[in-house]
Amino acid sequence: MKFSIDVLGVFLKIVIRVNRDTFAPLVVSTLFILLTSILAHCARRLVQNIVKDPFVRLLFEEAIAAAELCGCCFELIVVADNFGVATYAVYLFALTIWWSLNWGDATACPYTHIEDVIEGRGDVRKAILKIWAELGGGMLVFKYVQMYWALEISDTHKDKAVEDCSADLQVPVLFGALVEGIATCLCRLASRALGDLNPRFATAIDAFIGTSLVVAAFDYSGGYFNPVLATSLKAGCHGHSLSEFATVYWAGACAGSIVSVYLYKLPIIQEYVRGTTEVNGDSIWAGKED
Fold it and tell me: Which pairs with CB-CB distance under 8 Å and at least 24 residues apart come from 44-53?
């Protein structure tokens, strides 16, 4: 805990001493994302050292992961709005790798628990508790983000703490749900295949696929593919009703995830995965020789 406080103090000293007019806005955003990641990392370590019950510990880790995800993505909105989708994609790609390497068993994503229930790896009660933990972390982190934005260290944060948010949905509701559903399905299929194939750089490949799909959907639905993330960032924003929001970002994404469970079991996909693991000579596959 003391380390977290020291890090926060050093961070504030850095940003306050720099002239607000000349401080590069992208550096401000980068420092905030780094601070958020460091604080979340310290919180995870604290929970792992203090909480002994494995399931309770996982609930805390889910809340922390969701808070980290949503906190960083609030700032990624600023990056995308001011520096373009390409810069946003680079940051998202790097963060996705970081999250994959540091979250452990936490996912910060509700439909992964639904998948566990469908496949018999989890029960409904535990799935609901995990989802509530993620929602709690994702919703509470906005106060932390708002406090940082209120400092207005950069012009890109001017009035961000108090301005009304607007929906990212730029297409009809059903089309938006289809976009979120199909993209989520493709993401989950890719993740499952990479988990079975176990190639070298699997984490980077998975992050690249996910980031590419987000960018592809960016101008349609915003490319969230995660109900908790969408809820934290866009629930209640102008441009869609709560029922429309739920249809696109909850029903759409969860439906895509559920469909991926059954699609992945199809013989044609399983034959491809098993066949690929038997092919030698491709340097990206773990344990293979050229």
Answer: 44/102, 44/104, 46/1
